[in-house]
Amino acid sequence: MNIKNGVDIMDEKLLKYKKITSILFIVYFMMLTWIIVFKMELSMSNLVAERSINLIPFKESVIVNGKISFSEIIDNAIVFIPVGVFTAMLADNWKFIKMAAVPFGISLFYEITQYIFAVGACDITDLINNTLGGIVGILIFKLRRKVLGDKAFKVVNIFSIVCVVLIVIMMGVLIFLN
After folding, report:
1. Which of 27, 51, 97, 138 registers the highest number of CB atoms within 10 A of its CB?
2. End-to-end CA distance of the chain
3. Domain count, the chain
4. How many Å apart are CA 171 and CA 164, to the nearest integer?
5. Are 24 and 157 in contact (CB under 8 A)?
6. From start to end of 13-111, where are the E strands?
7. Each residue of 142-155: pLDDT tens digit?
8. Integer Cα distance of 171 and 158 in angstroms
9. Tens digits of per-residue pLDDT, 14-40?
10. Given CA atoms 153, 155, 169, 20 in this order, what sign does their dihedral have?
């Protein structure tokens, strides 16, 4: 233990990393909202009104031209991996099931929001895939932490900053081109 002025320096560093993680999570949540709820539109008037509910997993929502669209399934899981990573970083002392409830809850929020505001389908398949993506993210961070110890916080934050900057640049290009 490395003590300075009665405070464990490692705890101080972890607190600093968690503050950065919190900011990254908020930025990611805002980007996710723009992608999922606003369908990357700049104006609400451009959104197509759609209100439907699918309670049968892997039914019509993933069927394209009579075949299962695996890209839809994989994309939904991938987009929620960071939610799991950020959750595991911010709540590293929580039990696994409690951590997994966070991506589930966020996904449920998005599905209900799409239904209420008629901006998309409320789909159980999305809820399942998003939650699975979040769980993968939790496992990725837990594995990274086992390998790197507390340095995992720094490594993941640096990687996340780079990813967020790249996503913001891509979004800016999309906005500019439209």
Report:
1. 138
2. 54
3. 1
4. 10
5. yes
6. 50-54, 63-64, 67-68
7. 999 999 998 999 99
8. 20
9. 899 999 999 999 999 999 998 888 877
10. positive
